Amino acid sequence: MDLNIKSQENVEYMIEQIKSKLRMATGAAMQASAFSVNQYDDIYDLYDMVMNKQNLSISEVEAVVSELGQLRGNR
Predict the structure, then answer these.
(1) Which InterPro entries has this protein been placed in (predicted)?
(2) Helix 8-22 vs helix 40-51: angle between axes, to the nearest 10 degrees?
(3) Buried/exposed 20-49: b ≥16 CB within 10 Å, e otherwise
(4) Please, are residues 58 and 5 in contact by the beta-carbon 8 Å criterion?
(5) What is the pTM of this model?
(6) Confidence class of residue 8 from pLDDT cuts 50, 70 and 90?
(7) pLDDT of res. 7
(8) Is 35 helix (H, G, I), strand (E, B) or coil?
(9) Alpha helices, H only, the chain
(10) Is residue 1 part of a domain?
(11) Most buried residue, 10, 20, 52, 63, by most Cβ within 10 Å?
(12) For residue 63, is it within any domain?
C-alpha cells in the first residue's frame, strides 16, 4: 500500500490502523468511511505520529481521539 497516494482507500486504512493501535473501545463508533480524502494530509500526520510511537500515554490517546473527532466532523 502506497500511502503517498491520496485515496479514500488509504484514508480508511490509516484510520483502521490508528484505531487498532489505540485499542479503541469505541472504535466501532468511528467508521473509517466517515473521513474524507480532503483531510488526507492531517490524517496521514496523525497516522505517522501514532505508528511511530512505541507507547502512547492516556493524554496522547485522548488527544488523538479528539483530533479524529474533529476531522470526522469537518467532512
Answers:
(1) UPF0435
(2) 30
(3) eebebeebeebebeebeeebbeebbebbee
(4) no
(5) 0.79
(6) very high
(7) 94
(8) coil
(9) 8-22, 40-51, 58-73
(10) no
(11) 10
(12) yes
Supply angle C-alpha 37, 38, 43, rounded to 5.
70
* 3: in domain: no
The pLDDT tens digits of the residues spanning 21-65 come to: 887 655 655 788 888 899 999 999 999 999 999 888 889 988 988
Quote the CA–CA distance of 25 and 28 in Å, as a whole number: 8
For residue 66, give every residue at least 6 positions away whose Cβ sits within 8 Å of its Cβ, in sequence order, or none. Answer: none
Tell me how far apart the alpha carbons of residues 10 and 33 are, in angstroms, rounded to a whole number.
11
Sign of CA dihedral 6, 10, 16, 19: negative
Domain interval for residue 69: 8-73
Q: Is residue 53 part of a domain?
A: yes
- Centroid of chain to Cα 26: 13
C-alpha cell at 22: 489505540
Nine cell digits for residue 50 = 501514532
